[in-house]
Amino acid sequence: MKYFRKLQIIILLISLTGLILACSDKSRTIENQEDLLWGLEEEYIKAHKDADLSKILSMWDENFLGWPSRLENSARKTSGSEYLQKYFSKPMPADTEFQIEKQGIYIENNVAILHYRLFLFQSSTRLTHTWIKRGDDWYILGGMDWNE
Question: Which CATH architecture has domain 2-147?
Answer without folding.
Answer: Roll (3.10)
